[in-house]
Design a protein that fits this description.
alpha+beta; Rossmann fold; Elongation Factor Tu (Ef-tu), domain 3; Alpha-Beta Plaits; 8-stranded antiparallel beta sheet; 13 helices; 31 strands; LepA_IV; mitochondrion inner membrane; GTP-binding; mitochondrion; membrane
Length: 595
């Protein structure tokens, strides 16, 4: 019989419950369903699966949620934890506690979830379980007798994990006989059935054919199909309190499936809704435009479909004089942005151009008004900047970096070079040669979204782990750099940087533009400017047409007359001519800036 269900999150590689066949080379990444996940070896989308487990002559229904670990996908983790009573904190026995481990562990502790720490990969020669267990004990205050040892490759310790889940994690407390109340915590889109919602039943039960409604939209639906993920969709007649499953109700508009909404049955008393989730706050913004401007309707529809499975993306329309119609999207980080771009290309066959990532800035005006801008073109005009604007504030983050102690000096220099300051550092383990340091630093978010992470890996030979959290805004001397071709600004290339770094950035971008802008019949001036102040200039010489080629013989004065006429024509063309700047040039400049 089904005694109760216990939602938790886990990722290990060998089936011990009969839910799937023995793991082989063909299905080792069963829960990594996206192409980008298989190619990059990371988890991007939280995946839910239900399975039956025999323990002490009883059958238990376990609902698992496999979650990402990277900071850019922290919202996937927070949504998953809201539907759970416990969590497996999986730690590599060769690498120990990482910055992401601390972040996810603290999220679980804040929700008062039961945590089961597991040291994985103990079969590897480089594994050091005793030292890693000491790190867990000092970081989270969890006793060594509570830490489990396992190997997903060999299957060692997996049975102990399953027993610990049943014995340690408390079951859900919802009453199946009460009125229906369910939490909508995820969704996807099926071209034939519309929106498929994932729900966690908090109380009561739902059956096929029931009439239901969502609290936020107050719209009513019929439960056409319900079931569990086992690991694929398996239809059932009923979902009851404690279970997690899917719901298809012919919902066609993706905006109606609000993540965190509460689901009720029509006719029952309208009780208070569930708490839902903390709304996401975009940290990185970028414009996305189609290579062919005629493809914008298809791109916009693809973005709508994709954001149904990733509600942490903020979307609004944007128009550019150079690139045409597009969308400005807000992401949780640069990896999140890059994964979204790849999913658009892989899953929807979109050919897109993505602009340079920016962060939100807060503008405080002298009249007391405050606005947050995410587009550099919305930055106040330098002409009356000092008269209207009191200050500009940029977002700051508290970075957590874990690294071997021999790289500590180089990492502190790196933080200093990116306008950051080290707050403190502590040693995670004070014994042995491989001492590891937990460094906490305060950094501007604008510095992180450039090349900071690549430099971090290079400085520490790839041994450092990095995580960060938002800590609000701080006053800063930020300026907007505009790029001009023959005194005409290119709106899609405007950027906001710190004044101390403006000349350096302006020179680099001007040189890149000189390499990608095609030659014209007249001289082209490329300038980087702050208002009317020119920071850097590059010149593209004119293409030369040999106008004297057809003059055979004749006087010298005749040739000079033709050359002077050509010179006057080029001068006029430079004044009134338009520069042909193809989108391939934008693609090259933006791609080179991100590489």
């Amino acid at each position: 019989m089904l005694t109760y269900c216990r939602p938790w999150k886990v990722h290990f590689g060998r089936s011990r419950t009969g839910t799937v066949a023995k793991i082989t080379g063909a299905n080792t990444q069963m829960l990594d369903k996206l192409k980008v996940e298989r190619e990059r070896g990371i988890t991007v989308k939280a995946q839910t699966v239900s399975m039956l487990h025999q323990h002490n002559d009883k059958t238990f229904l376990l609902n698992l949620i496999d979650t990402p670990g990277h900071v850019d996908f922290a919202w996937e983790v927070s949504r998953s934890l809201a539907a759970c009573q416990g969590a497996l904190l999986l730690i590599d026995a060769t690498q120990g506690v990482q910055a992401q481990t601390i972040s996810v562990g603290m999220l679980a502790l804040e929700r008062n979830l039961t945590i089961i720490p597991v040291l994985n990969k103990i079969d590897l020669p480089a594994a050091d379980p005793d030292r890693m267990a000491a790190q867990i004990e000092s970081t989270f205050g969890i006793g060594r007798d509570e830490i489990l040892m396992a190997s997903a490759k060999t299957g060692e310790g997996v049975d102990e994990i399953l027993r610990a889940i049943v014995d340690r994690i408390p079951p859900p407390t919802g009453d199946p006989e009460a009125e229906l109340k369910a939490l909508l915590f995820d969704s996807s889109y099926d071209r034939y059935r519309g929106v498929i919602s994932l729900v966690s039943i908090q109380s009561g039960r739902i059956r096929k054919g029931d009439k239901i409604f969502l609290h936020h939209t107050q719209k009513k639906y019929d439960a056409v199909d319900i079931g569990v993920l086992h690991p694929e969709e398996t239809s059932t007649d009923t979902l009851q309190a404690g279970q997690v499953g899917y719901l298809a109700c012919n919902m066609k508009n993706s905006n109606e499936a609000q993540i965190g909404d509460t689901l009720f049955r029509v006719g029952e008393s309208n009780r208070p809704p569930l708490d839902g989730f903390q709304p996401t706050k975009a940290m990185v913004f970028a414009g996305i435009f189609p290579i062919d401007s005629n493809d914008f309707p298809k791109l916009e529809e693809s973005i709508k479909r994709l954001t149904l499975t990733d509600r942490s993306v903020a979307v609004q329309r944007e128009s550019s004089t150079a690139l045409g119609q597009g969308c400005r999207l807000g992401f949780l980080g640069t990896l999140h942005m890059d994964v979204f771009r790849q999913r658009l290309e892989d899953e929807y066959d979109q050919q897109i151009l993505i602009t340079n990532p920016t962060v939100p800035f807060k503008i405080v005006y002298r009249n007391g008004k405050e606005t947050v801008i995410s587009n550099p073109n919305d930055f106040p005009d330098p002409a009356d900047f000092s008269l209207r604007v009191q200050e500009v504030q940029e977002p700051m983050v508290k970075a957590t970096i874990i690294l071997p102690h021999e790289y500590l000096g180089g990492m502190m220099d790196l933080c200093s070079n990116h306008r950051g300051e080290a707050i403190e550092f502590v040693y995670l383990d004070a014994s042995g040669d491989a001492q590891r340091v937990l460094l906490t630093a305060r950094l501007p978010l604008a510095e992180i979204v450039t090349d900071f992470f690549d430099k971090l890996k290079k400085t520490t030979s790839g041994f450092a782990s990095f995580d960060y959290e938002d800590v609000g805004y701080q006053k800063s001397d930020m300026v907007k750099i505009s790029f001009l071709l023959n005194n005409k600004p290119i709106d899609s290339l405007a950027i906001i940087v710190h004044r101390s770094n403006s000349v350096h950035v302006g020179r680099i971008w001007a040189k890149k533009l000189r390499e990608v802008v095609p030659k014209q019949l007249f001289e082209v001036a490329i300038q980087a400017a702050i208002g009317k102040t020119i920071l850097a200039r590059e010149t593209i010489t004119a293409m030369r047409k040999d106008v004297t080629a057809g003059l055979y013989g004749g006087h010298y004065e005749r040739k000079m007359k033709v050359l002077e006429k050509q010179k006057a024509g080029k001068k006029l063309m430079k004044r009134i001519g338009n520069i042909d700047l193809p989108q391939e040039a934008f693609y090259d400049i933006l791609r080179s800036n991100r590489s």
